[in-house]
Amino acid sequence: MAKKKRKNNKKRSNKEDIRTKGIALILFFIALIGITSFLLYRKYYTEPNKFESDKYYIRGIDVSHHNPILDWNNVEAQNISFAYIKATEGNTHKDRNYLYNYDLAKNTKVKIGSYHFYIFGLSGKEQASHFLNTAKFNSGDLIPAIDIEHSKANPFSTDSTFLSSVKKELQVLENTLYEHFGVHPIIYTNKECYRLYVKNLLPENTIWICDLHKEPSDDISNWKIWQFSHDGKIKGIPENIDLNYYRYSFEQFSELLLP
């Protein structure tokens, strides 16, 4: 009887070893899947916050009253080549930091441009006039830009009448700026707004596209600036800032400048 018990104990011990090893193996694969998923998420879905591309070398930022007035000598020291500064919104709003940032930036080698935040439902002609009367446009500045995105002031809607009105006034705004400068304004937008308002309406405009997760594709025609972060980190600036790349070479960058 004693021998039989030892045999049963041995069988139980072997079963327990197998069970323990099986559980350990399952836990290992779960951990492996978890780590792989985390790394893939970081790579494809989290927002980068630094200039670290091996492909794009021309760096840019954009600022508004949401940011502090910057030390533009420090911006220049970070090898940042260009910056867009918000000037106006709608047909009355003026960005409170615009003139300070513009004048300070003009004392550096950073190329500066001004942008207007387009408000749905307002006259495109009046918005263009407000932008032209407020912002500064000097030779060698970046081509002015129109910011088209959803916000509290710009709700998303699938109503055909609403969409038609948004596009109609946007085209008036764009045409007015084109007639004034002799070049098409740059269009800042994201994938959703590009599809809804820009794609078939403004085919000749340079696109400044926002995509916080991956490089834009050529499905977005004529994109040349990529905004890849809203939470960028720059030495000497404690607050988050928007980061951008210009797509092509320094030689081609001159195409973005006013004559």
Shape verdict: globular
For the largest beta sheet, what order do the strands appear in spatially? 1-2-4-5-6-7-8-9
Number of domains: 2
CATH class of the largest domain: Alpha Beta
Task: Tell me how many strands there are.
Answer: 9
Separate helix tally: 7
Q: What is the CATH homology-level superfamily of the largest domain?
A: Glycosidases
Average pLDDT value?
89
CATH topology of the largest domain: TIM Barrel
Order of helices and strands: HEHEEHEHEHEHEEEH
The low-confidence runs, each spanning 5 or more residues with pLDDT under 50, are 36-45
Q: Beta-sheet strand percentage?
A: 15-25%
CATH architecture of the largest domain: Alpha-Beta Barrel
* CA-CA gap between termini: 103 Å
Please summarize the sheet with the most strands: 8 strands, mixed, barrel
- Rg, rounded, reads 27 Å
